[in-house]
Amino acid sequence: MEQAIVYLSDIPISNRSGTRWVQKLNDYNYKKLLISSVEEFDDQVGNYFDSCIRVKDILDFENLSEIIADVKSKYEIVALYAPKENLIEIGGDLRSKFGIPGIQKNQALAVRDKWIMKEMLHQRELNTSKNAIAVSENEAILFAKKVGFPIVAKPLNGFATLNTQKLLSNKDISEYFSNLVIENELLLAISDNRILLESFIDGEEYHCDCVVQNGQVVFSSVSKYLYNCMDIATKGSPPASIIFPKAESEKNVATRKISELNEKVISALGINNTVTHGEYFVTKDGNVYFGEIGARIGGADVMPPIIKNTFNVDMFEAMIDVELQKFVSPKQSKDIFTGMICLPQKSGEIAALATLKDFKDIDGIITFEVQRSIGDRLLDVKDTMTRSGFAIIEDVNYDSLREKLLTVYHRFFDLMVVEE
């Protein structure tokens, strides 16, 4: 029987942003089927897929099951890709129902349901926050009384720090539950009324991005956020991080501890044959705590480029390869720090924007991409996804790179003119 690959998507793969997710498929001689909620088969889609089925709802399990059953009657499905955060669970459900290799239903739950995730780690006695599930402010107040303020509240299966808040008092708890409205369409489609409560971990935030193949971490990188994700979403701090080169990461105590804990987390959750993006905290006394992990590419616009520049690992290609157990980690990497920073935006209609020439005094700029135009009307930022663009910069020194990234951010902000 001929072999096939199935790919679920809720973004256009025919534009530049979407194409990078699927380009690597052309290296493999399988029949390739795209199931999409946003596009139909055309010449551009045909560059990567043999056929495309347009569906109204990419999360309609019954409809997808009928489609997969039909495909399975004609082909041996060797891989089913569901790479976006909001598709991970349904991808696991479909693989388990139809006997398709890859992340299964139970594994998908372990990387999407944050209660299950944290509870499994507690069972292994790994460092993470104390947790509870709440559907009302009274339950949250009882949790806060037990663990002490501050606490963190977030959707049980959320992402991008959406609807995530640090709560300092009973009043904050009451306001959080009274004003809880999920506006993001992707999160709304997969959310229920349960809120995860966490004890607050006071520490600097890092992310660890990996490739896991046949039960082993075959590639791992550690990066440090300039500001914690909570502060980015709630205080307007610049979204930015810097990746540590291999030699520096191995000798740095904090990054070494993060890598070690990350491997234990991956083992505890049964994560396999996928890329991962994990969040970790390092406290002032040097202890490392797990935040959360996803079986996905982190920060699709901005994190893969810094990994690629320092380690020569393309996370989009790795995502395709590892599902087929074909990933090979490059042996060569650069002994250089690479950083990313998301460009800010202001509320209002854009009247003026900075361009690359406004930053010609800053060396090491690899990428400077502005995704807004004059006349665009923008809103305030309330998550870690919204941006006006981004810059990628390299430097041999961490502190120098940090200064360059923040200079770009603040200068871009100053040069952006908006009108009410």
Automatic annotation (TrEMBL):
Protein name in the entry: ATP-grasp domain-containing protein
Lineage of origin: Bacteria, Bacillati, Bacillota, Bacilli, Lactobacillales
PANTHER family documented for this protein: ATP-GRASP ENZYME FSQD, FUMIPYRROLE BIOSYNTHESIS PROTEIN C
Keywords: ATP-binding, Ligase, Nucleotide-binding
Molecular function GO terms recorded: ATP binding; ligase activity; metal ion binding
UniProt domain ATP-grasp: residue ranges: 118-324
